[in-house]
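so my prof wants the structure for this chain in the tokens format not the other one, which i didnt know existed until like an hour ago. anyway here's the sequence
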Amino acid sequence: MGKKHIAVAMGGYSSEFEISLNSGEVVCNALDKNKYNVYPVHILDEGWYFVAKNGTKHPVNKADFSFHNDTETIHPDAIFNTIHGTPGEDGYLQAYWQLLGIPHTSTDYYQAALSFNKRDCLSVLKNFGVRAANSYYVNEGSEINIEEIVKKTGLPCFVKPNRSGSSFGISKVNEMAEMMSAIEKAFTEDSEIIIETALVGVEVSVGVYNKGEEVIALPVTEIVSENEFFDYEAKYLGKSQEITPARISEEETEMVKKEAIRIYKLLDMKGITRSEFIIENGKPYFLEINTNPGLSSESIIPKQVRETGMTLTKFFDILIQNVLKTE
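here's what i got, hopefully its the right format
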């Protein structure tokens, strides 16, 4: 039967591409080399390449996602998708791989696109009774009425780009005078923005994945930011504490895991996702779901996996076995 060819897709076209390259490297190193031939594939603005161990770049043929490895042409049996942001987390690559018939570890294209659009995702989930902060939406070019916004969301509130990750473009607004510059900052990342009531409580993050038909929640992580909120600095420059398992009651832990699994199933997700909540007055309020969460050594999912006693090698193996077409 031989080893399966696994392409690890990393990079992307967004401000998160460097973070994704780190995630991709962690996956490449952790995958079981006895079972898989592993190929790092960089998908970047300047081109798509398989990058060989010696640093040689071999272009990817976009007609079938194949590439040369100096001796033969490789057609991947499956793709491990570690791209955060566009085009790997918003559905573009998922749709393309599905058209080519290549299995991949992330969720399907529609689910990816829906969850990448925070406001569309919230609109769907609110109909199923998922709790979330009050929100107000603004599109670029439309009239902005600050009084009306504050009437809906109150202060403090968060101003966020609708479709961006890693907390780029987010501001916390404590008084009306700060609102316009926060809105302008968010518009540098996206033409649609979302303004939400700042919930007060414990912020937690929970990974959920499928193992075949079974849907499993990982241990819950508590996020304690030294900054005003869990922003880019807090996420990647060590300005936050991530505590796994979270210092919340057993009852709250179970509740948030159950809600994360419910959301995963409601949205018909596949692969590994990570949902963020704020627990306010004992109830989890949903913030967002990431369908390609960070997998670099500092990221939350690897810490949650290790907390269960599982190795990343074993965990990534589950994600690949989920999608590999068995002979």
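also thought this was worth mentioning. The radius of gyration is 20 Å.
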